[in-house]
Structures are given as C-alpha cells and as structure tokens.
Amino acid sequence: MIDGVLGGPVDQDYLLQARQMQAMSFAVHIPLVCFGIAFPAMVLFLEGLWLRTDDPFYRALAKRWSKAMLILFAVGVVTGTILSFEMGLLWPEFMATFGDVFGLAFGVEGVSFFIEAIFIAIYVYGWDRLPARVHFAAGVPIVVAGLSGSFMVISVNGWMNQPEGFSVRGGEVVDVNPLDALFNKNLWHELVHMYIAGFIVAGFLVAGVYAYGWLRGRRDRHHRVGIVVALSVAALAAPAQLLVGDWAARTVADRQPVKLAAFEGLEKTTKGAPFTLPGGIEIPDLLSVLAFHDPNATVTGLDSVPKDDRPPTGIVKVSFRAMVFIGTALTALGGWFLWTWWRHGRLPSSPWFHRALVAAGPLALVALIAGWITTEVGRQPWVVYQVMRTESAVTGASGVPVGFAVLGLVYAGLAAVTFVMLHRFSRGPLEVEADAA
Q1: pLDDT for residue 356 is more than 80
Q2: Which of 1-10, 73-82, 356-365, 397-406 tops mean pLDDT?
Q3: How high is the mean pLDDT of the chain?
C-alpha cells in the first residue's frame, strides 16, 4: 500500500549534471556487463570443442579469449565500483529510503562478484596446471556468477520501474518484503531482454574485430573460427530479441502507459493509434496492434498525466527507434550469415558482409545504450515509479560538476589503457600447443 509520494524537493542546482554523471558511468559499465554475461560461455564453448575434438587450435583460441576475459573483468571491477559509489553519493535519499527493500539484491550481487573473481583467476592461471576436465569445470561458476550478478542488478532496475515489496505510511517505508521486491513483476522481460542483448553485443563486437582482420588480408583459420563462433552466437540471439522486445513493449503498455506514449510521441489518448515511420508516414492502427495485438485498442497518450509527470519525449522517441532499427538490421545481417552457412558451409564471400560486420559491433553498442535510455529516461521524472521523484533523491552537494569532469578524465584514461592492453595482446601470434592436447 502506498499512500503518497516520498521525499521532498532538494536544494540542488546540479540535478542535470548528476543525472549525466550517472548516465556516463552506466554507459561505460554496461558493455562490460554484456561481456560478463556472454563471453565466459563463448570461451567455454571453444574449450568444449577442444575436449570433444582434441584439436589443439581450439584450446589455444580459448586460452587467448580467456586472457581477454580477465582484462575486461578487471576493467569492469573498476567501473562497477565507481557506479556503486555514485549510487550513494549522488542519490543518498534514494539509497537511505529504500536500502532495506533492495539491499538483499546488492548483497547477492556482491557474493556473485567474489565467486566470479576467484574462479576467473583459477581458470586463467590453471590452463597448464589443472587436468583438462577439471579446468573446464572451473569455468562453469564464472558463467553462473556472471548471470546471477547481473540478475540482481536488473532485478533492482525492474523494481524501480514496478515498485513492490513494501508499503508507505506516513512518509515512511514499512512492511518490507525483500523477496517480493527481488522477484518483481517487471523483472522477467527486462532480464531476458538484457541477457540476450549481452550475447548480441559480445558476439558482434568479437566477430567485428576478426572481420576487420579478414578485410586486411588475415584470412587464416584463426580469423575464420573467431568470426564463425562469435557471429553464430549473435546471429541466433538477434531474432530472439525481436520477440522479447515485443513482450517488453506490451508489458510497458500495460504497466507504464506514459512511457509507451513517449516511445511514439503520442500526445493524445487514441483508439486505433497509428505508428509513425521516419519521414512522418503514418500506418493506421499499427501502434495499437504492436502494444495490445488489437487494432481497435486504446493507447494512453501523454495527455493522461500533468506536464510535470511526463518524460522528455524527444530523446526517448529517438532512442527507441534507434534500438528497433539497429536490432532489425543486426537480425538481417545474422540471417545473411546463417543462410550462407547453411546452404554453402562457409562465410559470405562479399567484402560488404565483412564491412557490415565491422560496423555491427559499434552499432550493437549504440542499440544497447539506446535501449537503456529508453528504459531509464522513459521512467522520468520518477526514480522509483510513482513513488519517489528523481529530484527528491539527488544529493544536495555542490561539487557535482567537478566530480563529473574528473570522472570523465578517469574513464578516458581507463579506455586508453584497456585499448592498449587488448591491442598488444591481440598482436601476438596464436600459439597452437600441440603437446597440450
């Protein structure tokens, strides 16, 4: 039961900068989360090929990928720690008010992190020290911990969009049930959507790196297998994401109708609402069909709430369309690969395929960030939907612009170091250790 909106206005001249600072940290960290979700499974797949075929090439490639996995995990530790500190420093009212509600999720996420760190160390440094099957088994907890850690964070975000597991009486949070908050109704579509996005982003980025080498003339087995394994993951995940996206959109239409109105920029509540294509072309009834699978369904417009309760429509609309357009294009690219492989047992021979594959990695990142902008900005002005406003959760500190500038420099330096490490690491020859088979 909720009998009112929590919090009051905070004397803060830097609300926008605080939001931008949090958004920058999130944009830096979330691609690393994708690799934490998907990359360990890809490495284990290669090691499994080695165990099944006794081909030392697969072992050598899995060993190389595991070292990249370690580098990305280390960078993710830094960015994740910064993000955690920002939650308390920038949004103290939010953390103080609802810490008892979602504290369980953050606790489990911390345990998952430690398990992942321990087994990554065992896995990477155990290649020549552990029996083959024991080494493979040591990689399984990395996959599980990566999934469980992200599960907890996504659970908190789902709760922010569909708050439950507590009551508000007299301006206080009472009757807290952490399990109800953890397994909230908004969790499931966000969870599946993000997990699949992790495999799409990691798959297309890794495939794009090898496609770039392919275009530069490095057409050896190393680059061919790198493309095929990574692209197979992404190509199978991309069409599934379209189906999950439909599920997510219908859930938003039911539980956050104003956010859906912002997706389309629908000003007035409309029966048989049209969908507007780029260029202003309207398709009658299509928005109603997409949202409710009914051409005569009524879609709630922005006019259903006061202006102060409406999200910034422009950026939400652009982000939503960018996500959908790029996701559709990536599905088509993956379909091109799967069709050619099924019919001819090889990669597409056109250089345009490999050029598109090089572009697909950055575009997948754009779609990922656009999707999170759609989710988070579309919820505004609420940090906890219809319970606490963002302006009521922000810090009253005066040093936000200075922290913003310093953090930008930290991320720039971190990006440069990461690029140099991965680049130097990728330039070395792939050592196929035949005796290790």
Answers
A1: yes
A2: 356-365
A3: 89
Distance in angstroms (rounded) separating the CA atoms of residues 220 and 234:
22
Query: Which residues, 6+ apart, have CB-to-CB distance to 303 below 8 Å?
Result: 267, 268, 269
DSSP H helix total and E strand total for the chain: 13, 8
Domain layout of the chain by residue ranges:
15-266+301-436, 267-300
Long-range pairs for 315-321 at CB < 8 Å and ≥24 separation? Answer: 315/373, 315/377, 316/259, 316/262, 316/263, 316/373, 316/374, 316/377, 316/378, 317/262, 317/263, 317/264, 317/265, 319/370, 319/371, 319/373, 319/374, 319/377, 320/263, 320/370, 320/374, 320/378, 321/278
This prediction's pTM: 0.93
Angle 402-408-411 (CA atoms, 0-180°, nearest 5)? 140
113 token code pair:
């992190």
The answer on pLDDT for 314 being more than 60 is yes
Q: What's the pLDDT tens digit per position in 281-305?
A: 888 888 888 888 888 888 999 999 9
The helix (run of H) or strand (run of E) holding residue 215 is: helix 187-215
Contact in structure between 329 and 289 (CB atoms under 8 Å): no
How far apart, in whole angstroms, are the C-alpha atoms of residue 278 and residue 256?
A: 24
